[in-house]
Amino acid sequence: MLVHICCAPDALYVMDLLGKEYDVSGFFYNPNIHPREEYDLRLKETQKVADSLGFETIEGPYENSRWHTITTKFKDEPEKGRRCDVCYALRLERTAKKGAELGFDIFTTVMSLSPWKKAGIMNKIGKMFGHRFQIEFLEANFKKKDGFKKSAELSKQYKLYRQRYCGCLYSIRGRSPDTFSPIKVRGNK
Question: What pTM value is reported for the model?
């Protein structure tokens, strides 16, 4: 199974859960993350989780300008608006395509763990791209059964960086300036 990963905290809980049933590999494809330093930090933390749980991580290209091109007309949308749907689609399409290219049987995403993400919309988009690329999509809503709460607890235990915004430039609006700068990883100097 190829699993789209957006960040280490979500990956820690979901990859452990899925790893009990599937042979999982992670796909870190997040052209939405801004600034680049934030992207690099999230990738580094994801690799820490992969090393700890013992799964392979594949890094997709950082196509931030492509992301901006396709989302700019939705820049004034609120969180969970149409911009987010376009962002899910971009990342799920790339995951389905990569999964099919590499011969995976099935794919999914950890994003449905977040209470700020719409699992129903992601599942529809995932099924559509699964059909297009002829790879099965695992529909999920990982926030159920206290998934998000368990993820937060595990993140503290593993001393993972937990971001304060989804990652995109538009999600920073209205937040304090310290949100924009990467936060020190708990326990690190």
Answer: 0.90
Evaluate whether residue 51 is within a structural domain.
yes
d(CA 87, CA 116): 13
Number of domains in the chain: 1
* DSSP conformation class of 106: E
Look-up of token digits 């013992």: 54
Going by C-alpha positions, the residue among 46, 34, 41 that lies closest to residue 10 is 46
6 located within any domain? yes
Task: Provide the CATH number for the domain around residue 61.
Answer: 3.40.50.620
Which residues contact residue 79 at a Cβ distance below 8 angstroms, ignoring those fewer than 6 apart?
A: 116, 166, 171
Please list the ranges in the chain whose pLDDT falls under 70: 173-189
Alpha-carbon distance of 43 to 49, in angstroms, equals 10
Q: How many CB atoms lie within 10 A of CB 84?
A: 25
Cβ burial of 23 (10 Å; 0-12, 13-18, 19+) is exposed
In a domain, 14, yes or no: yes
Handedness of CA 50, 139, 75, 59 (dihedral sign): positive
Range of the domain at 68: 2-180
